[in-house]
Structure formats: C-alpha cells, structure tokens
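Please review this one.

:::
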Amino acid sequence: MLSGTHGCHGIPELINKRPVSDRRSAVVPEEASSHSDLIHTLIQFTSLEKRRLTCKFVKKKSHKMSVSTTHGLPFLPGNSFRDTTKSAFHRPQTLSYKNGYALPLRPTAGIGQDPLLSENILQNEMKQLSSQIPTLTYGTPTRSPPRDFIPAFVAYDKKVLRFYGYYKEEVLHSPNEHFYVQPVVIYYYLEDDSICVMKPKLKNTNEKEIKQIKRHRLPKNQPGEHYHWKDFNLAMDMIVYNTVYRITNCDPFTQEFMESQGIVLNDPEQIPGDPHSSRQTQPQLPDISSTNYDRFKQFLTMDRKVLRFFAVWDDSDSLYGEKLEVIVHYYLVDDSVEIRIVQESNSGRDTVPVLLHRQKIPKDIKEVCQPFPSCVLEVSPQDVQEFYSPKNFRVGEELRLMGKRFLLYDCDEFTRKYYEQHHPDIPLKPLPVQQKAQEDCKKVIPPYNGFGSLEDSLQNCLSLIPKPPKKDLLKLLENDHKVLRYAAKLDSQNPNDEGRHFILSYYLSNDMISIFERSRRNFGILGGKFLEKTRIPKPSSTVENPEYYGPADFAIGATVEVFRHRFVLTDADQYVLTYLESMAEQEQIPEKTLSSLRQALGQSKALDPNHTSLNLPDPAAGKMAFSPLSLS
C-alpha cells in the first residue's frame, strides 16, 4: 500500500508512463450524457486508475530495484532505489564548436545514457502536463496567476497613522495652576511599527515643533511586547515611559485604515483646557454695527486725491518758539492728515520733514475718556465720536490739531476746485503772509593766526573739508629750475654778526625765497641753511592783503626784511641781470634795479679781474651750479 506522500508525487508521473493502450482505455465513454451518469463514470475511472497505478508501481519495484528518482518519487532517504550494477553517471555533451563559435546542443540521452523522459511522452501528454487536471465541473476552469510577494516595508512605505492627543504636565511651586495640558501628535509608521510623538507648534508663540519621543518601537508592558496599530483607538489612554497620553482624535486616512481592518473607532474627544490657557484667552471685542457708508467706493473714487493747505504753525507760546511754515495734507481716500515742515536753507534746524505722520485725527471723544490723561490715552475707534473732515479745514481761519495752532492762509488749485464742487458754502479767504526778508550774509574771513601759509589757512574758512590751494601749473612748467641768486649780508647792531655772508635764492616757479649762510674757517658760527623755502611778505603789507617780495624789489644795496632780520644785497649773479633784462617789459622791472645790477656787476669785474659770479647754467639743462661769490 502506498503512503499519501508517495501517491501524491508518484501518480501524475505514473499516469504519463502508462502505455498508449492503457491511456486510451481510460478515456471517459461518450454514452454518459446525463449528469448522474457522468459522475458515476468518473468515479469508476478514478478507482480503476488507482488500481492500475498501484499494480504497475509494485511490478516496477520488483524488477531488479531499478526505479530512479526521476520517475516521480521525491529524492529523499528511503524513496530512492539505486541500481548497483550501473557504473556510468556522466552527463551528455551539450556544447560543440563550429567554425570557431560555441554552439549549444540538445542532449540526446540522460545521465548515464538513460533515455530522456520527454522522448517517451507524446505531444498531447506534454500539453496535459502544463494544464490543470480536470475536475468535476463543466469545462476546464482558468487558473489565475499567483500573486507576487510584496514585503511589508514596500506595501506600507510612507503610510503613517496620525493620532491627536494630549498629556498633563505637572507644575510645581505655582499657586495659580497645578498642571499644563500639552497637546501632542502621535505618528505610527506601518512599515516597521515604530512610533514617534511630536509636540506641535502652538499659535502666537515662537516655539518650534518639538520631538517628544523619537521614532522607535514603544514598549507596551513588562514582558517586552510592543504597541501595534491594533492597540490604538480613540478616547483611550496609552502609557509610554510612565506618561499617560490620551488619544482624542485622528486624521481621515487613519480613520479609513482602521475601519478597513475591522476596528470600530470610538467617538472623538476635545482637548480639555487648563488654568494657564484659560487666563491667556483674550476677551472678545464687542460687535460693532456696520454703517451704510461705502468705504470701497471711497477708495475707488478718492484714491491719490489729496487736499493741500499752506499754513503757519504758531509756536511762540513755548520757550524759544517761533512761527514756522508747514504744509497740511488731507488724504480723501481714508480721511487721514499729514503735516510737513517747509525746509529752509541755512535755518539751523534739523532736517525733520514730517511734523505729524499720516493718521486720522479725532475731533470729539466720548466724555468717559476725557478725565483720563490724553498723553497716555489709547483712543479706539469706538471712543471717537467724530474725526476731522474737509469741512473743518477753512482757508483764512485758525485750526487746532493735536494741541497745536495752525493758520491756514492758502491752498493749491486742486483744493480750491474741490471746495467749489463739493462744499460751495465754505468760503476760501487767502491771507497774505509776511515773508521774511532775506539777509545777504557776507562771508567774514577771520584774521590770519600765523600758522601755515596764508593760502593754506584760508581754505579752512572756505569749506568744511579744506582743499589744497591751487597752483599755477603753467608758471611751474615754464620757470622750473630757474633761480635768481644774490649775495647779502646781515644788517645788525650785534657786533658778532659782522662778517657773516649769505646767499639769497629766489625761485621763479613759486616765488619762494631761501637763505643759505656761507661757512668761514675759524669764524665761530656754523654755516648752512638759514631759511627754508617760503614766501616772504613785505613789511608794509597787511596780513589780510599781503604783498610778497619779487625780482623787481631786489636791487643791489636794497634792504630785505625777513621775519625781523634785515639783509642788505651786495652782489648778484650774471644770470640775474640777463633774466631781468629779457623780462623787463613783461614783469615791469624798474630801471633803478637794472642799473644797480649793471653797476655792481661792472664794478666788481673792473676792481677784481678774478671775480667769480654765481653763474647759473641754462634753465633747460635742469641743474644749478653753486660757485662762490667774491664778497668784500
């Protein structure tokens, strides 16, 4: 007798191994036309087939124990009958080469040269192997293809259940409240059954969303079980790490998922309040009855239309007060008022253009608010009975705004036309305003203080950031390296100054003078630079209008006063005479100066044939040669 396992795996294979004659005799006869006859015939066919298969299997088992595992029995211990006389177990060759290319071959025999099972099966039987075994129904049912296996982390990816709840946080050392109600959001991730608890951001607070419990599987009890989505429901408590979370509600996706799984959700609850939140709630403002005035129409018709009044602000009542000209703007779009100060140049005032920012100015306030100090009174629209309107602005009359007096003396052309069209009963009476006579302020230059040059010090009086005085560039380029040198001696009452000889150099490029003292052996006074290059004013000139020394003033025998030191010119260079003679007409050199130079240079040559003058080279050479003067 065959077991159930042997019969389950062996019968389909043995059916295919039956002879053709046996398979043909097992066909259901065509005479069974009725339903009952068909069922009876199938039952007989089934019992007959079982009996034949059993006999055939026993016969093959007794035939030299040569049944292999390929004949239907599973390859398990006790189910295989190996032929001990078989010695060939090699597999047939299935690969060959042709023209250098590898070609696969179809095997002609099995392992150990056993015949292939496919050669003993007919084509119709091969088709029946891939089809379903007929059942006791009319026709052959179609088999649906097996469904692909989808893991949980793919099926439930990005699917999260969201529950809303709260927990009570204890407050210590507070006489006003003993607990806070903290709302939370519980996220359940279906892909790995992890849970995350977040504390949402509250309204009108700067707090961000806080993660109360990071994402992981939350323990349910001491044995180690974890929370599952089947454990969740509305209006229930969930204890996590000794904190009781009350679940009150969920989102629509969570509700649909739970109901699809057969879980009946409880009714949602509201998050209760706490003493702290009840004190923070603001009282509702009283309802304000709507008026029939159309603000939207006012905006469409009066947008960018402004009434402009010219006024005078009389602030003479206050300390150091005065009258200032202002411009009052009245915006028709929202009945707001703005006051601007007319800026005057050199008025000495700070540049504050706006005296009153644009706002609606109340005219009449309820009597309840009158005793309250107006400086700290916050007037609401409900406390104001009337605001200032265009009817209150009358040209030629005084207007009081925010405690200040303003005299409206004129308006612009648009304002005048607006009053003629909309308020013809209000007369416009422009008033003449006494304009202040503009005084011509003369610039007074302070006296020279002696520091620096006069031109450089004058720049501090002309501008806040002084600039260097301008130079005559053309004169600098033409007279570069041109120097007039004279020999001089010091006119002093001090006997120690006798015998001191100096060289006075006049620079034609910038009209500056430098003095150099010649050194003498065993004289007791060191020579060197006596005066740096500078412009020397004449003693007869004033500090405001100085007159400086020029080439026309340097005659032989003339006295030059340099900062209270008197120098007498005794000799000059030949270049001085040559230059002055060439420039006599342009520079207006007096004849006295030229004659003194000719006489001094001619006498010095006649008296001393070895006389050496200060020979200056050609100015184009760019160098000066200092040769000693022969001084008596």
